């Protein structure tokens, strides 16, 4: 059930990215064109929601996170991981979460295989409504047809902790189900200067998703901070809660998105991998740097249509 692809693959996509970045006659072009038009596979109808992206409340509103999905075993009450929708048939998550999918598939019947739950908002209700006349469709559930884990994933320090889940049927996009945008090049400075507002949105113990305000932790600062317990690799970045002494249950949040508003769209620039909440002061969390893996994501989707 598990198929993997190496990071070293270089396709026409890489060439198109370079050409688009440089533009015509050596002129730099507006970055939206770079992110939106360099691939025929990703960043289509992505990152849109009907709210001011710079003023996000502590708890997500309906239609505010249409790309967020849950991974759940049908026999369990709660989800075990998160993921994000990146195309009409693929979910992005961590390799650790993907391996849990594979393990479950090998030990249970098809009836009890892991579900991908899309279009969810309030876990306590079957139908979510803003008003009596504005209700979302029921949640959509898909089984997993194929698991694609990064070829160089290692569990020692969660290097290359990234995977894609191919669903058994395509998804029709609507207000409740929409893919998130992915950065083709880095769009967030590696500093703690909070010029961009970033969030990690998860379902915690609350019935609706919590939108957690985060702050970047520069790589070298994070590397020193966790050096006694963890070795940070080049494909990993760090963030912590913006507010000191902020407490939230992060269980089951692996695979969730570190999100940033970029030119009016929501981009996922980090994938939650590892946390040290009870070990290190100011609680850095380790994320996979999406921009470093964009070629792998694109190639994996293109080679498994």
Automatic annotation (TrEMBL):
<keyword id="KW-1015">Disulfide bond</keyword>
<comment type="similarity">
    <text>Belongs to the peptidase S1 family. CLIP subfamily.</text>
</comment>
<dbReference type="Pfam" id="PF00089">
    <property type="entry name" value="Trypsin"/>
</dbReference>
<keyword id="KW-1133">Transmembrane helix</keyword>
<keyword id="KW-0391">Immunity</keyword>
<protein>
    <submittedName>
        <fullName>Peptidase S1 domain-containing protein</fullName>
    </submittedName>
</protein>
<feature type="transmembrane region" description="Helical">
    <location>
        <begin position="12"/>
        <end position="30"/>
    </location>
</feature>
<dbReference type="GO" id="GO:0005576">
    <property type="term" value="C:extracellular region"/>
</dbReference>
<dbReference type="InterPro" id="IPR009003">
    <property type="entry name" value="Peptidase_S1_PA"/>
</dbReference>
<dbReference type="InterPro" id="IPR051487">
    <property type="entry name" value="Ser/Thr_Proteases_Immune/Dev"/>
</dbReference>
<keyword id="KW-0812">Transmembrane</keyword>
<keyword id="KW-0399">Innate immunity</keyword>
<keyword id="KW-0732">Signal</keyword>
<keyword id="KW-0472">Membrane</keyword>
<feature type="domain" description="Peptidase S1">
    <location>
        <begin position="57"/>
        <end position="302"/>
    </location>
</feature>
<keyword id="KW-0325">Glycoprotein</keyword>
<dbReference type="GO" id="GO:0006508">
    <property type="term" value="P:proteolysis"/>
</dbReference>
<dbReference type="InterPro" id="IPR001254">
    <property type="entry name" value="Trypsin_dom"/>
</dbReference>
<dbReference type="GO" id="GO:0004252">
    <property type="term" value="F:serine-type endopeptidase activity"/>
</dbReference>
<dbReference type="GO" id="GO:0045087">
    <property type="term" value="P:innate immune response"/>
</dbReference>
<keyword id="KW-0964">Secreted</keyword>
<dbReference type="InterPro" id="IPR043504">
    <property type="entry name" value="Peptidase_S1_PA_chymotrypsin"/>
</dbReference>
